[in-house]
């Protein structure tokens, strides 16, 4: 596909009035920025050109899709984020931003700029968040095909091209919206599954059930389970389980007269010696010293 870009603002006055579809396409393009070249290139119109050290603020929405290559993106309140192939990001009106391809790789970009009352309505949906403007779309054939249709519509013009461009932009946003919802649902399913496993850990604190067994009991691989668990809780499954056991042991030391050996056994430790060593490593004192220090406080 040949590269193409058009900025329509300069042509608006020469176009006869058109029905208001709620979205007006202002610019659209497909460009392959070569490696080793500064970005943006000199063909960018003055209203859209920016220097990296200054960044840019637009008056419109833009949807930008990076089909190949890599680079970085940054916006107000968002640090620099690495952009990989298949990344889509939104630019919001009045929001400072900057982005550029990696000098060693360049990138291939598709974009469409738009405005309008229906555009405002769509971009105010929950899945479109200025604080999270990036989405990993990956390769989506339908998405690319609609983008190509949009570019061809603007490129060749003709009767009804403005309305068709608006419809195609709405279709693009619909696909992005669906992709974002699926991602959220996937994250919700992941969170629910990890919460179920956390419940299983709580229910089995007095046993020596392993994280591998927990994963198998919930029909997921241990590698996936460990990664997802740490992503959601900030701890590995083993550390989470161990910390709960130590917390329970602390309560038992302060609230019961059970021996240290019995407490170790009821918390699934293989021996009193192993329990004491782990306890001291976590609490910086032995179980017996912990009990001595905590009991006078408990009886006050």
From TrEMBL:
Q: Which domain of life is it from?
A: Bacteria
The family database entries (InterPro entries) matched by this protein are listed as: AraC-bd (IPR003313), Homeodomain-like_sf (IPR009057), HTH-like (IPR037923), HTH_AraC (IPR018060)
Q: Output the SUPFAM superfamilies linked to this UniProt entry.
A: Homeodomain-like, Regulatory protein AraC
Return any one Pfam family short name: HTH_18
SMART domains xrefs:
HTH_ARAC
Keyword annotations of the record? DNA-binding, Transcription, Transcription regulation
Q: Name one GO molecular function term.
A: DNA-binding transcription factor activity
Q: Where is the HTH araC/xylS-type domain?
A: 195-293
Q: Which residues form the signal peptide?
A: none
Family matches, as Gene3D superfamilies? Homeodomain-like, Regulatory protein AraC
Q: Would you tell me the protein name for this molecule?
A: AraC family transcriptional regulator
Species name = Pedobacter frigiditerrae
């Amino acid at each position: 596909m040949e590269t193409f870009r058009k900025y329509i603002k300069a042509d608006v006055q020469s176009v006869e009035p058109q029905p208001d579809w709620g979205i007006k396409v202002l610019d659209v393009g497909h460009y392959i920025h070569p490696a080793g070249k500064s970005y943006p290139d000199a063909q960018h119109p003055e209203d859209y050109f920016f220097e990296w050290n200054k960044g840019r603020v637009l008056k419109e929405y833009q949807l930008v899709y990076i089909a190949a290559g890599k680079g970085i993106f940054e916006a107000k309140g968002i640090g620099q984020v690495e952009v990989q192939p298949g990344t889509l990001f939104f630019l919001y009106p009045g929001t400072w931003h900057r982005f550029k391809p990696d000098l060693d790789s360049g990138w291939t970009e598709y974009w469409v700029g738009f405005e309008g009352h229906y555009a405002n309505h769509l971009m105010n949906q929950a899945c479109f968040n200025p604080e999270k403007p990036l989405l990993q779309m990956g390769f989506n054939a339908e998405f690319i095909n609609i983008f190509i249709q949009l570019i061809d519509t603007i490129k060749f013009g003709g009767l009804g091209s403005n309305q068709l461009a608006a419809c195609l932009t709405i279709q693009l946003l619909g696909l992005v919206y669906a992709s974002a919802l699926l991602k959220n649902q996937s994250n919700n399913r992941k969170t629910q599954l990890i919460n179920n496993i956390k419940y299983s850990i709580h229910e089995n604190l007095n046993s020596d059930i392993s994280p591998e067994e927990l994963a198998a009991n919930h029909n997921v691989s241990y590698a996936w389970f460990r990664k997802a668990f740490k992503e959601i809780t900030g701890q590995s499954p083993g550390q989470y389980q161990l910390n709960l056991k130590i917390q329970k042991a602390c309560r038992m030391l302060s609230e019961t007269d059970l021996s240290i050996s019995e407490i170790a056994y009821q918390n699934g430790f293989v021996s009193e010696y192993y329990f004491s060593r782990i306890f001291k490593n976590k609490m910086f004192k032995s179980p017996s010293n912990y009990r001595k220090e905590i009991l006078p406080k408990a009886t006050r």
